[in-house]
Amino acid sequence: MTEQRSYPVAKTDQEWREQLSPQEYAVLRQAGTERAFTGEYTDTETEGVYSCRACGAELFRSDTKFHSHCGWPSFYAPAEGDNVELIEDRSMGMVRTEVRCASCGSHLGHVFEGEGYDTPTDQRYCINSVSLRLTDTPQG
After folding, report:
1. Which positions ≥6 away from 81 have C-beta within 8 Å?
2. How many CA within 13 A on the CB side of residue 83?
3. What digits encode the pLDDT tens for the residues 86-117?
4. In which band, very low, low, confident or very high, does the pLDDT at 137 lie, cut at 50, 70 and 90?
5. Would residue 126 show up in a list of annotated catalytic residues for this protein?
6. For the chain, what are the domain ranges?
7. What's the pTM?
8. Per its record, what are the GO molecular function terms (predicted)?
9. CATH H-level, domain 13-136: superfamily
10. Taking phi first (over 0 means left), then psi (-120 to 50 degrees means alpha), and beta for anything else, what does residue 68 get?
C-alpha cells in the first residue's frame, strides 16, 4: 500500500503476514485484486454482516448487496458509520476511488458511480470477497 496513514488497528507487516493467508495479504495489504467470479461471496444471498477480514470492523450489510454481474460482491452503500474510507487511486493508468477499511487501512476494492444500476445510491462498491467475512445476522 503506497499511502501511509494512521489507523486505530495497527500491526507490523510481519504481524499481518502471520495473521492473513497469502491471498488475503496480497489483496488486503498490497491492494491486489482476486480474479473475477472466484470469490466466495460473489453470488451469496445469505443475510448478515460483512466485516473486514483483517480486523473485524463492520463494513457492509446484506440488505445493500446486489447482483451487478461484474465478478465481485457489489453493495450500493457501506454500513452505517465511518467504517470505510475512500481514496483517489491513480494506479493502472486510470482514476478510480479505492475503498479501504477505516479501522486498519486494508484494501477492500473500489467504488463506481453512474453506471445505471437500479439502486438507491447509483453507486457500486465492488469489493473483493477475500477482504470480507460474512456473519449471519442474529435472530432477535
Report:
1. 58
2. 17
3. 999 888 788 899 999 999 999 999 999 988 88
4. low
5. yes
6. 13-136
7. 0.90
8. metal ion binding; peptide-methionine (R)-S-oxide reductase activity
9. Peptide methionine sulfoxide reductase. (2.170.150.20)
10. alpha
